Amino acid sequence: QAYVVFSEELQCWCRALVESVRRQAGGCQLRCFLVDYARYCSVASENIRVLAGAFAKIPYRAKKCRLHCTKPLTLHIDYCENTAKIGPAKRWDTAAIQHFRKLLE
């Protein structure tokens, strides 16, 4: 279900999908995916609203997607043996993400 959240970074209300909820002393913190900006952000629980009827039917401008059969790699450096090998990683490196964005442009 889509909601409307206030993004501090963009300084506006945005449509979002809630990814996770984290409880804190002052309330809840929501991790959201902004469906019209293709960004993730954290939002306080008081900055979320239910999306009104007609606005819920507008298609999202951004979609989450993955490259088929493409896994992230990183450079593993062993200082003791003075070697470097490319191996699997849990997440994409920042440099790889920037390089991919440049290729898309």
Mean pLDDT figure: 86
* CATH fold group of the largest domain: SH3 type barrels
By secondary-structure content and strand pairing, the structural class works out as mainly beta
Q: How many discrete structural domains?
A: 2
| Backbone shape | elongated
CATH class of the largest domain: Mainly Beta
Q: Uncertain runs with pLDDT below 50, 5 residues or more?
A: none
Task: Tell me what you see in this structure.
The protein has 2 domains: 2-57, SH3 type barrels (Roll); 73-103, no CATH class. Helices cover 14% and strands 46% of the residues. It is built from 2 helices and 7 strands. It has a 5-stranded antiparallel sheet with strand order 4-3-2-1-5, with no helix packed on it. The protein has a two-stranded antiparallel sheet with strand order 6-7. The model has no long low-confidence stretch (mean pLDDT 86). InterPro entries: SNase_OB-fold_sf, Tudor. GO terms for molecular function: ATP binding; hydrolase activity; RNA helicase activity. One of its GO terms (biological process) is germ-line stem cell division. This is RNA helicase.
